[in-house]
Write a structure and sequence with these properties.
This is Dipeptidase. It comes from Streptomyces fuscus. It holds the Pfam family Peptidase_M19. Keywords: Dipeptidase, Hydrolase, Protease. This protein is of the alpha/beta class. Helix content is about 40%, strand content about 10%. A four-stranded parallel sheet has the order 1-2-4-3, with helices on both faces. It has a three-stranded parallel sheet with strand order 5-6-9. It is globular and about 60 Å long.
């Protein structure tokens, strides 16, 4: 069986600051300048109006399952995320988690993930003035230009594959773009098995991003080496500042930056701390270790987590950006943080998938064959 890692050795990774265009896709629109006048909060709103937030993790799908009725366009106080707050927070893209609650029976993982995916699609269809499904980087940009929040499906839990690459392809066909590599026999504390590496290669071929938040350090290190597309940590901060198991140590942050990956820092009190300044400390640290092209934002709203003061819901991003402006972050670093880095990894995944599909047939590997 051909190994994608060998087949695509000639394919260069995108430079951190370089936009990767998919053939046939519209080029990115020219970005308007950010006014320099005004205080930090006024400048934050101006910057976010031009370069909105790509939010790396939202637990909204599972939260909505428990509501008998809701209207996200009018506003919904029972959840942390609705269209008015997305607009006040200047959220241009939302990665919608399809993760499952702890304790759910393993034999329900596939069905529960499909049910959540179906729910998200129904929610988007019911709120066309505020939300739009996006499968590609170009569609994310189109949604932003139309004044909608682009909804990207994922991350989903790896258990939803039921150890089947065929199910991975079905989920991708339904719109899945991100899969978390943790909690299975092939992505465990010991790292990726041979089948796990084959899953990563098939994800590269499809354009599904590997999410390494919550994965073991061994899995993170092996996935960084095995993946030809950038990897993403949808909710990881700096372990050097807060020893949470989902946070990354400096050596893995440095490796993530060297591989062109993206660490999306969560706005949760447990992982980053109880104040806006604590979140900013983590962003400072990740930027210093991984580089400005490898740091992003993850609201982690509607996930059941407690959030820092002044960041209670999706409308709070301007206050965080104002704090970073106060600390001296440049406009160029901030535009990478909010929007540019997420667009880059999505575009690079699209480009890598198109190249891989010309060289590699869909994998028929079975876990029993590779991990016997």
């Amino acid at each position: 069986m051909a190994d994608l890692h060998d087949e695509l050795d000639e394919l260069p990774l995108a430079e951190p600051f370089e936009a990767v265009l998919v053939e046939g896709a519209d080029p990115p629109a020219a970005e308007p300048p950010v006014p320099a006048a005004g205080g930090p909060l006024e400048r934050a709103h101006a910057l976010l109006a031009a370069h909105p937030v790509a939010d790396g993790y939202s637990g909204l799908p599972w939260a909505l399952r428990h509501l008998p009725w809701y209207d996200l366009e009018l506003g919904e106080s029972a959840v942390d995320t609705d269209v008015p707050r997305l607009r006040r927070g200047h959220v241009g893209a939302l990665f919608c988690s399809l993760h499952l609650p702890e304790g759910l029976a393993a034999d329900r993982a596939v069905a529960a993930t499909l049910e959540q995916l179906d729910l998200v699609r129904a929610v988007i269809a019911a709120h066309p003035e505020g939300l739009r499904l996006a499968r590609t980087a170009g569609q994310v940009l189109d949604a932003r230009n139309c004044g909608r929040t682009a909804v990207v499906l994922g991350p989903a839990t790896a258990a939803a594959l039921d150890d089947s690459l065929g199910i991975l392809r079905v989920l991708h066909g339904l719109g899945l773009r991100i899969l978390t590599l943790a909690g299975t026999s092939w992505a465990s504390e010991a790292g990726l098995t041979r089948f796990g590496e084959e899953v990563v290669r098939e994800m590269n071929r499809l354009g599904v991003l590997a999410d390494l938040s919550g994965a073991s350090d061994e899995t993170v290190a092996r996935a960084l080496a095995a993946s030809k597309a950038p990897v993403v940590c949808t909710r990881s901060a700096a372990r050097a500042l807060r020893p949470h198991p989902a946070n990354l140590p400096d050596d893995l942050l440095a490796g993530l930056g060297a591989a062109g990956g993206l660490c999306m820092v969560p706005l949760t009190a447990e992982q980053t701390g109880p104040t806006v300044r604590d979140v900013a400390d983590h962003l400072d640290h990740v930027r210093a270790v991984a580089g400005p092209a490898s740091v992003g934002l993850s609201g982690t709203y509607d996930s059941g987590a407690a959030h820092p003061q002044d960041l209670p819901d999706a409308s709070g991003y301007p206050r965080l950006i104002a704090e970073l402006l106060h600390r001296g972050w440049s406009d160029s670093d901030l535009t990478l943080l909010t929007w540019g880095n997420a667009q880059r990894i999505l575009r690079t995944a699209d480009f890598t998938a198109k190249a891989a599909q010309q060289r590699r047939e869909p994998s028929t590997a079975q876990i029993a064959e590779l991990d016997a």
